[in-house]
Amino acid sequence: MSAATTSAQSLREQERAARRAEKERQRRVARDEAAERRRAEKAGFANVNNPRRSTWMTVVCAIFAVYCLFPFVYLMINATKTQADFTSTFGLGFGRTFALFDNIATVFTYQDGIFGRWLVNTLLYVVVGAGGATLLAIMGGYALAKFRFPGRKAVFAVIIGSISVPGIALAVPQFLLFAKLGLTNTPWAMIIPSLISPFGLYLMWIFSEQAVPTELLEAARVDGASEFRTFWTISLPLLAPGIVTTALFTIVATWNNYFLPLIMLKDADWYPLTIGLNQWKDQASTAGGQAIQNLVITGSLITIIPLVIAFLCLQKYWQSGLAAGAVKE
C-alpha cells in the first residue's frame, strides 16, 4: 500500500472521528440544557441565556395589561359620545353619534373657557413646583452622596422619616401654616409644598452613589475643575436616568394632586385640573345643575395626554438606568 493511500485513509478516519466528537458534543450540550431547564423549573427561575416559554406568565401579563389599559379604553370610547348617548348606551360601546371633536371644542368653551385656565394652572404648578423639586433633589442628593460633613447621618434619618409620613397627613398643618402667612387661595399654596420631595431626594442620593465614580470627580479636581463645573459638565450627564425618574415621579404627583388644592384654594380661577373636573362632575348633583358627564370624560382624556407623552418621550432615559447598581464591582 502506497504512502498516499495510507495518508488518505488516515485523513478520512480523522474526519469521521471529528464528526463523531462534534455529534457527541452537541448531544452533551442538549443534555446540559435540558438538565438546566429542569433545575430552573424546580427552582422557579429561568436562565436568561437559556430562556423558556411560560404560558402562565404570558396569561398573567396579558390580564395585567388589560387591567391597566381598561380605564384608558373606557375614556377613549366614552369621549366620543354625546351626553344623551353617554346615559343611554353601553359603557364600552360607541354611541349613535361620533362627538369627540364637538366634545373637545365644548370642553374649552364651557363656562367661558375655564378648562383652559385650569390647564395653564396645572402646567404652572408642574413646571415650577415639580421642576423645582427635581432640581433640589438632584443637588441635595448629589451633595449627600459625594461630600462628607457633620450631621450627614442625621439628615439621612430625617429623609427616611419624611418618606414614611404620608403627604395627606401634612395637608392640614400646611393649611394652618399658610393661613397664618396669608398665602392660601394663591398659587404659592400649591407651589411651595410641591418643592419638597423626600423620596426624590433619597432616590437621587442612592443613584448618585452608584452612577458617579468618585475617581472621576477626583480626576476632574486634579485637572483644576471647580465643584460647580464638575457637577454640571461631568456628574449631571451621568445622572440623567435618575433625574428623569425623579422628574416623572414629581410630575405625576403634582399633576394628580387633589387633596392639597382642595383645602388650599377657593377661587376657581386657581384650580388645577383635578379640582376643576371634580367640580364639573358634582355639578349634576346640585340644585338646577346640568349633567355634563361627556365633558368630564373628555376633559379627563385631555388631562392624561400630557403625562402619556412625557412617559413615551422619557422612557429611553428611564430604562437606561434601571440596572444601575445591580452589578457589584
From TrEMBL:
Positions of the UniProt region annotated as Disordered:
1-35
Q: Where is the sequence biased in composition, kind Basic and acidic residues?
A: 12-35
Q: Which residues cross the membrane?
A: 56-77, 89-110, 122-142, 154-176, 188-207, 228-255, 291-314
Q: Which residues form the ABC transmembrane type-1 domain?
A: 119-313
In which residue ranges is the amino acid composition biased (Polar residues)? 1-11
Q: Supply the alphabetized keyword list.
A: Cell membrane, Membrane, Transmembrane, Transmembrane helix, Transport
What subcellular compartments does it reside in? Cell membrane
Tell me which domain of life the UniProt entry assigns to the organism this sequence originates from. Answer: Bacteria
Q: Pfam family of this protein, just one? A: BPD_transp_1
Classify the protein's membrane topology as the record does.
Answer: Multi-pass membrane protein
What PROSITE patterns does its record include?
Answer: ABC_TM1
Family recorded in the similarity comment: Belongs to the binding-protein-dependent transport system permease family.
What PANTHER family does the record tag this protein with? Answer: ABC TRANSPORTER PERMEASE PROTEIN MG189-RELATED, ABC TRANSPORTER PERMEASE PROTEIN MG189-RELATED-RELATED
Q: What is this protein called?
A: Carbohydrate ABC transporter permease
Source species of the chain: Bifidobacterium santillanense
